[in-house]
Protein: DUF3127 domain-containing protein
Amino acid sequence: MSMQVKGTLLQILKLESGVSKAGKEWKKQDFVIETNEQFPKKVCFTLFGDKISLIDGISEGTEIEVFFSLESRDFNGKWYHNINAWKIENAGAASSARNFPPEFTSGDIPPEPGDDSGNDLPF
Structure:
């Protein structure tokens, strides 16, 4: 299940790392955004492994769009949920980079056709 949401980056939490029972190193980075809805919600997302670099260069207060997936898992009869971000875009840049046509100038007007008696076109 993949979804997306826009909001303002409120906080980048401390980087966490460790070693799994299988002996593999892991690291994760959590961050919190506040949605731009009538009733704003605060949502904490997680970035794992090499995805942590997605948050680099984005400062708190920036408008972003987060693409994420939801995941739940059972551990000893209790369910735990993750909101895993897999793509982050700067929403401010996306909205200002819309493709508007260029401004009209007088140089855009084609010249008047002259008397071309040497023209062999039938019209």
